Amino acid sequence: MNTNCKKWKYLLCITAVMTAFSSIPFNTQAADQQVKLMNDLDKKQQTTSSKMDSAQGRNVFAVTAGAANVLDAEIMSSALPDGAVPRMITPKTNVSSTTTKSDALAAFVKGMMVLQPEMLPQSKLVMAKVNEYVNIRQEADQDAEKVGVLYKDCGGDILEKNNEWTKIKSGDVTGWIKNEYLYFGKEAEELAKDVGVLTAYANTETLRVREEPSLEAGIVGLLADGQAVEAIAEEGDWVRVSYEGTTGFVSSEYVRVEFGIDTAESMEAIREREEAERARAAAEAEAKRVQQKEAVFATASELDILAALIQCEAGGEPYEGQVAVGAVVMNRVRNGGYPNSITEVIYASGQFVPASGGRMESLILNKTTKASCVQAAQEAINGACNVGDALHFRRNNGRPGLVIGNHVFW
Question: Where would I find the H helices in 196-318?
Fold first, then answer.
């Protein structure tokens, strides 16, 4: 009987305990599990933060799962491709108060931040890194044919790049340049900003350039369709421009604004330019050589003296050579470093060999001077000159100067 009573006492105690536990709401148990989970996560967060403080070159990103969880992810920057930045995807799954421990762990794993490399746009701009110019070659080889030249402060676009060479397109030139002679990326962009030009192109038949950014402002000038002016800045509905040395404003509605930099020059264009420069220099030299100078008063005897000298010096030369000898004498007459008369210039000591040998006098006395030499003397006296400012001549022996016939003039 006593034994049975003890058994009933134990059974009643166990039943009371079970009844007490069964009266506690289930969500309290789940909440306790969640608290424990959060404590674990807090410990993990503290550990991760400690690692972040001691690890150089690392980035820590945080995302929120619902309103309760804070998840840390530790990312090594070097693990991403060049030019990539991590992009966060924020999980939308909430951890409710009734979530079980296994569900919470599943949500934790699912809610982990996903890093997707997102490549930033890489600038394709290159600028010349030289003091004067760099050659552009047909192939990535120092001995390859030159196809153009990229000058200082000029640039282009990258088409292909390797460790030593970069293929670019600049203007109408496409070819290869060694990397050491180019600026890339940020350096190229900063240089382009410094040397580039902002240009406004009129896209209406007649564009008014106004004194102020207002339709009521005065007009400083007009631009025809397609004409361009330097743009200083874009200011809302107006563009501030430089017009014939003054500042003006044009409506942005009627212009196309473009930023540009100077580009490469092809070898064909270089040859054409050099040929044009040579032709222009030759024309200028010819204009300087052949000119009409001030006439000089001369007596009949001085005309005979000059004609006789011309025959003695260049009687066998073409007519151009005869005029040239007379022009040298007249240049000396006009020049302050010599006497101011034909006779004194010709008979100056040691200047003209025929003047001291008696041959000139013979021609004058016998009136046997050639008609072409007399005509050349008269033209020279009247101001005709085909030797520029030359004051000397002699038989051509390779000396630098203007060569006419068998003589060189300087």
Answer: 267-289, 300-314
